[in-house]
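R.M. (postdoc): so does anyone remember the format we settled on? I'll just put the structure tokens first.
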């Protein structure tokens, strides 16, 4: 304990998974928990055909799982796919929502994507995208 009868920060600041908030082992700060890592990794494997047959639909399934558990990289991927219509119908409003969610967690690419989308969306669409992002509720972390 220090002079103020407080525990040192190192003892009170337990590292957590940035995607789901689950505490993770010491020495792994900034990394994701195994379940969130698996969802994102599975998406990448199916997208790139690494160890599995390339399957964009299956990649999107895994990105959705990771994005719903608040993984900013997966949220940005869904935003890009929604904006481009890759593997799904083109939906700029959903793209904007996912980009805002990832940007709020510090994803610089998502911040740039949200800014670009604001150039093509109407003010009403921008307001709706922000409302959807504000009402987003991450799912509980699930085991793979």
């Amino acid at each position: 304990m220090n002079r103020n009868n407080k525990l040192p920060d190192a003892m009170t600041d337990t590292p957590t998974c940035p995607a789901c908030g689950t505490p993770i082992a010491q020495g792994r700060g900034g990394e994701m928990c195994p379940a969130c890592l698996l969802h994102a990794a599975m998406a990448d494997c199916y997208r790139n055909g690494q160890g599995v047959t390339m399957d964009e639909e299956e990649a999107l399934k895994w990105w959705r799982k990771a994005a719903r558990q608040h993984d900013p990289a997966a949220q940005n991927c869904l935003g890009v796919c929604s904006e481009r219509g890759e593997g799904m119908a083109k939906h700029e409003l959903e793209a904007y929502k996912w980009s805002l969610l990832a940007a709020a967690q510090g994803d610089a690419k998502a911040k740039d994507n949200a800014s670009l989308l604001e150039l093509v969306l109407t003010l009403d669409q921008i307001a709706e995208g922000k409302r959807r992002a504000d009402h987003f509720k991450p799912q509980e972390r699930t085991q793979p």
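R.M.: ...and that's the designed sequence above, right after the tokens. Also worth knowing: The chain has one domain: 33-134. Residues 33-134 form a domain with the Serine Threonine Protein Phosphatase 5, Tetratricopeptide repeat fold (CATH 1.25.40.10).
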